[in-house]
Each structure stands twice: as structure tokens, then as C-alpha cells.
Amino acid sequence: MSSRVVVNTLKFCTTSMDILVQALNVLQLPIIQHTNAIIVNGKQIEVQNNVMFMRFRSDDSTTPNLFNRINSKVAEIESQLRAIQAEKNAILQSEARATEEMYRVRQIQKEQDRLAYEQKQLKLEQESFVQAKKEAIIQKAKAMGYSVQERVENGTVKLKLIKRIY
Amino acid sequence: MKELSIEISIDEIGILEAETFGFKGKVCEKELRALLSSQFVIEEIDKKEDYYKSEEETVLALEKVRGNKL
Predict the structure, then answer these.
(1) Chain-chain contact of A156 with B11 (C-beta, under 8 angstroms)
(2) Which residues contact B6 (CB under 8 A, 6 or more apart)?
(3) Fewest beta carbons less than 10 Å away: which of A10, A70, A94, B59?
(4) Which residues of chain A register pLDDT less than 70?
């Protein structure tokens, strides 16, 4: 007479021992934790290279039920953690966008200030240039015997040089 | 008595326009160049009708004025 035993393996959907333990705590299952295994209700969850699984014989129906309860809770916790992380990421992204926008506004303001300063400098230089040219013309005109009348219209300097000859 | 005049405008960016009145012949151009060429680059001169009239009278008159001043 011979017997045949099939041993099945069910793998948990997480590689995090913390999440698995958290799921067991939420389910209020008594556990005994070892280095490479957790005993739950007398059933063993094995841990090898961050992979957690349960072995059971084909004639054992309680282990798959227990596994499904635990694995469902693990999936639920992982889903919640992903949602929390997504929310945190969204907040961080929003903060980064706000920071970037503030930086951009500061840069624009800085550029506007620089342009305003340059325009002011340019205007001063132009006024100085016009003034210098005007003085030079007046001086030359007087040397050439002209009398000079001066006025300003809409920012334009108008000179009238007059010479009377007899 | 004859009155010679030059009207000059210098805009905000330093561009100058000058127009002569009472001059005849090329003397107006000479007068403008004498007045402006040390300070400005003359790019364009639009000649008026008087430019093509005799300048003899005006030149003599100008010389007389300058002579009087000396």
C-alpha cells in the first residue's frame, strides 16, 4: 500500500513583513514570531528572501481559508498605504508647484526690476546725450553769429538759430 | 535787412532734424555742415527750391556779417 501527499504553496501578495504582521494584528490573530517564520493559529507562515508563503497539504482546507483571510487583509492594507502615499505625493507635488510658481513670479519681478532700471539708465543717458548735443550746437551757432532761441515740445528740443544780415 | 534762420529739433533719442530758411544756393548746406558735422553724422539732406537759386548774394552777406564781427 502506498500513499501520495501533495503539498501546495500559497504566496502572500506582499514582501513586507511589517504589513503582514499589521494584517495579522488587525485580524486579531495570535501569532508567535520567529526569525524565518510566523506561527498563526498553529499554522506556519514561512519567510525566505522576503517572500512569505504557507504550505499545506491537499487534504487541508483550513490553511487556504486562513491564507485567504490574511492575504485579503494584506491587500487591503497595501491598497490603503498606496492611497495614503498617493495623497502625500499629491500634496508634495502641489507644494512643489507652488514653490516653483513663487520662484517664477520672483524671477519675473526681478527681470521687470532689471528692465525698469535699464530703461531708466537708458533714458538718463539719452537725456544726457541730447543735452550735450544741444549745448555743442548752441556754442557753435553762437560762434557762427547766430542768436539762439530754445524751447521743448513733447520731449523734443527745438532750437531756432537766427542771423540778421544788413 | 535779411534774416537767415535754422530750425533744429533733437528728439528724445538724439535724432536731429534741421531746416534752413532764407538761404539761397548751396550755402545752406555748407552752413549746416559747419554747424553740425563735428557732432553729428549727416545721413540725408532734402534740398528745397532755394537750394538751386543763386547763392552769391547770401554768401556776400554772410561774409559781411562775419567781417563785422571780427
Answers:
(1) yes
(2) A141, A146, A159, A160, A161, B18, B19, B20, B21, B31, B32, B35
(3) A94
(4) 1-2
Task: Please give the model's pTM, rounded to 2 decimal places.
Answer: 0.51
Task: Please report, as a single letter, which amino acid is at residue A44.
Answer: Q
ipTM value for the complex: 0.72
DSSP state of A166: -
Torsion on CA atoms A6, A11, A17, A23, rounded to nearest 10: -100
* Beta strands in chain B, from DSSP E residues, in sequence order: 2-10, 16-21
Residue A141 CB neighbour total at 10 angstroms: 22
CA A39 to chain centre: 44
Q: How far apart are CA A72 and CA A47, in angstroms?
A: 18
Cα dihedral A69, A71, A72, A78, rounded to 10, equals 140
Model confidence band, residue B69 (pLDDT cutoffs 50, 70, 90): very low
| Residue pairs between chains A and B whose CB atoms are closer than 8 Å | 83
Supply B51's cell numbers. Answer: 537750394
Check B1 against A165: CB less than 8 A apart: yes
Residue B64 contacts A where some CB pair is shorter than 8 Å: yes
